[in-house]
Amino acid sequence: MRNIPVNARYGNLLGMNQNTPNNSRKHKKAADGRHQRARRAARHSSKTRQKVVLTTVSICALALCVMLAAVLSIGIRRPGSTTRQTANASSELDSSRASNPPASFTFVGVGDNFLQDAIFVYHEMMTGNRDYLPIFENTLPYTQNADLSYINMETVCGGDDYGLSGDPAYNGPLEMINTLQAAGFDWLSLASDHSLDLGDDPLKNEINYTNTTFPDIATTGAFQSLADAEKPVVRDVNGIRVGLISFTSNLGTGIRPNGEDWLVDLYRNADGSVNYDLMKKRIEAAKDESDVQIVSLQWGDEFSTEVNQEQRTIAKFLSEQGVDVIIGTNPHVIQPVEFIHNGDRDTLVYYSLGTFLSALDNQESMVGGMASFTLHYNFYNGKVSFDNVKFIPTIVYMSPDLMTFRTTTISEYTDEMAANQYIAQFGLDTSRGWVNEFVRSVLGSPKGVEVVTG
Question: Which of 171, 287, 321, 339 has the fewest CB atoms within 10 Å around its CB?
Answer without folding.
Answer: 339
